[in-house]
Amino acid sequence: KEFRNNVKPNWCPGCGDFSIQAAIQRAAANVGLEPEGLAVISGIGCSGRISGYINAYGFHGIHGRVLPIAQGVKLANRELTVIASGGDGDGFAIGMGHTVHAIRRNLNVTYIVMDNQIYGLTKGQTSPRSAEGFKTKSTPEGSIETTLSPLEIALAAGATFVAQSFSSDLKQLTSLIEQGIKHEGFSLINVFSPCVTFNKINTYDWFKENIVNLEQFPDYDPTNRVVAMNKIMETNGMLTGLIYQNTTRKSYEDLITGFKPEALAKQDHMITPDEFQKLVAEFK
Ligand code: SF4
């Protein structure tokens, strides 16, 4: 079960995205997947390169459209484990509409957001996750907008699995990805992933000082949505661990009527190449 390939990542040395790549590879192996059983779909941004760095099916999509592609892949072949991945700009700015609707749709996809609180690929602009007052070339006087809270939005949208981690905590991150893959429904895993080149505020040390690990609360109940929302707000969104899980709600695939479990390509109603050409000719 080898999820490494020969492609050398061109992320900056020290970028948090390296650990997320390693965590996905470890989690996939730990849950017993084979490379041909996994599809990694990514968006645009430094994080978007990840689909080319894992030995599995990959699709490097377009900005903000990770989730429509991932959901299409899953519906076309539900035998595949589908991991979608992108940055905070990709998922929480241009792609936010898709994120909210994918959450409430509850298709069986694991969505890993590499949250560095800045746009890295385009050389450092303020993102929806940047703090108020954050100065970059796009907000030289400091951002006057509030920071978007993806965990609160996910819970409000009816999420069945909400987790958060830190790229330096490989053990926790790997475990959460494993749990996300096993979860029957949509799983959101937001991962603090420092951009060492452009974000000089939210550094590794900053995250270490500000993160609140759920391990500190042994009585915490991740099945209680109200408790989860309160804890997120109490900790200013810096909570890490499995924050909320609802195993009682069925996934989208399980609710569709007449949906065959076999991949579309294996179903016998597929049209032949001749029939396809005939169909195309009708539209010429
Ligand atoms: Fe990582 Fe930032 Fe470099 Fe992009 S610019 S590879 S996010 S460190």
Automatic annotation (TrEMBL):
SUPFAM superfamilies: Thiamin diphosphate-binding fold (THDP-binding). It is an enzyme of class 1 (oxidoreductase). GO terms for molecular function: 2-oxoglutarate synthase activity. Its cofactor is Mg(2+); thiamine diphosphate; [4Fe-4S] cluster. It comes from the Bacteria. Residues 195-260 form the Pyruvate ferredoxin oxidoreductase beta subunit C-terminal domain. Residues 44-191 form the Thiamine pyrophosphate enzyme TPP-binding domain. This is 2-oxoglutarate ferredoxin oxidoreductase subunit beta. The keyword Iron-sulfur applies. Pfam families: PFO_beta_C, TPP_enzyme_C. Keywords: Iron, Iron-sulfur, Magnesium, Metal-binding, Oxidoreductase, Thiamine pyrophosphate. Its EC number is 1.2.7.11, 1.2.7.3. InterPro entries: 2-oxoacid:Fd_oxidoreductase, OFOB, PFO_beta_C, THDP-binding, TPP_enzyme_TPP-bd.
